[in-house]
Amino acid sequence: MSEIKTKQTKADVREFINSFADSEQKRKDSFELLELMQKFTGFEPKMWGPSIIGFGSYHYKSDRSKQEGDWPLVGFSPRKAAISLYVYTGSPEHEHLLQNLGKFKMGKACIYIKKLSDIDVTVLENMTKETIAFLQSKYE
Question: Is the pTM of this model over 0.70?
């Protein structure tokens, strides 16, 4: 069984955003997301691996394999193609949370946005809090 590679690091979050975000808009949105997610969650931002900014953490054990590890409760990354938001469980019971979010694309449990103004921040806050509550009740 391989060990998960994405772990919390001591890298500086603000330095990461300044060096990694590839446009002024993405940098601005990333700093705004940093403040919003810290306010929504009450957790300090931490780097997870080389490119994810996470808030809080939980310990999981996979139902399908023997893999287990720690992962941020929620987070984001200012990737080249879009900002990746890790604020959604991907569970069918949470699909209603996406209805009024705004303009986005979906991965399995990841939401991609071009810019922060494309989404409703109040809906993002609700989604963030619902995801944290779900993960904490499931894994803690």
Answer: yes
